[in-house]
Amino acid sequence: MHELSLAASAVELIEAAAVREGFSRVRRVRMEIGALSCVEPEALRFAFESAAAGSCAAGAALEFLVVAGEGRCSGCGATAELETVYDPCPACGAHPMQVLRGMEMRVKDLDVE
Amino acid sequence: MCTTCGCGGDGATLESHPHAHPYVPRKRSAVAVIPPAPDEVRRIEVEQDLLARNDAEAVANRKTLAQLGVFAINLVSSPGSGKTTLLVETLRRLAGEVPVAVIEGDQQTSRDADRIRAAGAPAIQVNTGKGCHLDARMVGQAMQRLPLQNGGLLLIENVGNLVCPAAFDLGEAHKVAILSVTEGEDKPLKYPDMFRAADLMLLNKCDLLPHLAFDADQAEAFARRVNPAIRIIRSSATHGSGMDEWIDWLRAGAAAARREAAAA
Lengths: 113, 264
Ligand SMILES: Nc1nc2c(ncn2[C@@H]2O[C@H](COP(=O)(O)OP(=O)(O)OP(=O)(O)O)[C@@H](O)[C@H]2O)c(=O)[nH]1
Ligand SMILES: [Mg+2]
Ligand SMILES: [Zn+2]
Ligand SMILES: [Zn+2]
Ligand SMILES: [Zn+2]
Known about the structure:
The complex is a heterodimer.
Chain A: H1 2-21, E1 26-34, H2 41-52, E2 61-67, E3 69-73, E4 79-82, E5 97-101, E6 105-112
Parallel strand pairs in A: 1-2
Antiparallel strand pairs in A: 1-6, 3-4, 3-5
Helix pairs in contact in A: 1-2
Chain B: H1 26-33, E1 42-49, H2 52-68, E2 71-77, H3 83-94, E3 100-106, H4 111-118, E4 123-127, H5 136-144, E5 153-157, E6 174-180, H6 187-190, H7 192-197, E7 200-204, H8 216-226, E8 231-234, H9 243-263
Parallel strand pairs in B: 2-5, 2-6, 3-4, 3-5, 6-7, 7-8
Helix pairs in contact in B: 2-5
Bound molecules: guanosine-5'-triphosphate, magnesium ion and zinc ion (3 copies).
């Protein structure tokens, strides 16, 4: 359950932002989660609920922006959507595609009061 | 509808209310009439990676290791692929030649660290409890308690798990993935992140190949599909095949770490 430690990191980032920006309560957290990342969103949601308890993010709604996988061919330069990190290039068949997007695991923004 | 008084505002008026106040159409008024109060909800852009702190700690570990001239390896695999057996055999072969320190990651027990200490090397056991991987902070703390010597090795045995150790940089020079021939050829396709993150793969327990239907060429092809640059050594930690090549690779890494620390 690496989601546990990722959730704990998210709460740490949020608490640091609370000190920096001077807010005391978070209503909503938006995270970008890449489709190719190792994160299972529902497991992260579950972990976040417990990690956030007692922090300024307790009870905050967690929203995921899922980022589709996208890669660029290391051979011909074509870009394409990726289902897996090792999809072959649809144009030339060469491996591997360099992953451009889809590995994200980040806190994007917060609605705070 | 007039939002000041609630009247129709579409030309119809109430007798008692001739519309002396300016009428503002609803859409604009919704914005104009409810100005954002300073203590109300505001948006904070954070834009920070969940792994940012781990990555920063990994950078610090890597710097410490570079200054010391220590070659650090992060061994990742499924449970039971032979990591500890490989480490014990590595210690035996490098005894008296290259100083080796070991960090053992397991959810529970100090059994693996006990095996390493019995083989004569300093070892720290890190129990991750529910955590399924080592992180850079755990490794940084363990490093402080180990005798790390110039030109030596730090071998880190990660928790047996093919998923998340790929995402957590510990500050190592290389991840080494161990795949044993009892696990199925398609592991690299099922857990591509791990085989992409690794620079070297040991295909271990090759002594068992005569007894199995495992297709070693296919397993190698799958690993290369995921990571064309990966180096592969077919090994048996118990019977010795591939061990010379593995030990030479470690020796070369340790010598390079020592040279680079001296040049810095
Ligand atoms: N036949 C054969 N057995 C091996 C080899 N390497 C390890 N084993 C056996 O595989 C079993 C597991 O080995 P370990 O070294 O404990 O594996 P591990 O990866 O450290 O296991 P965890 O730390 O629990 O994830 C033991 O019974 C070893 O004797 C090998 O090369 N050939
Ligand atoms: Mg072990
Ligand atoms: Zn984990
Ligand atoms: Zn291409
Ligand atoms: Zn009115």
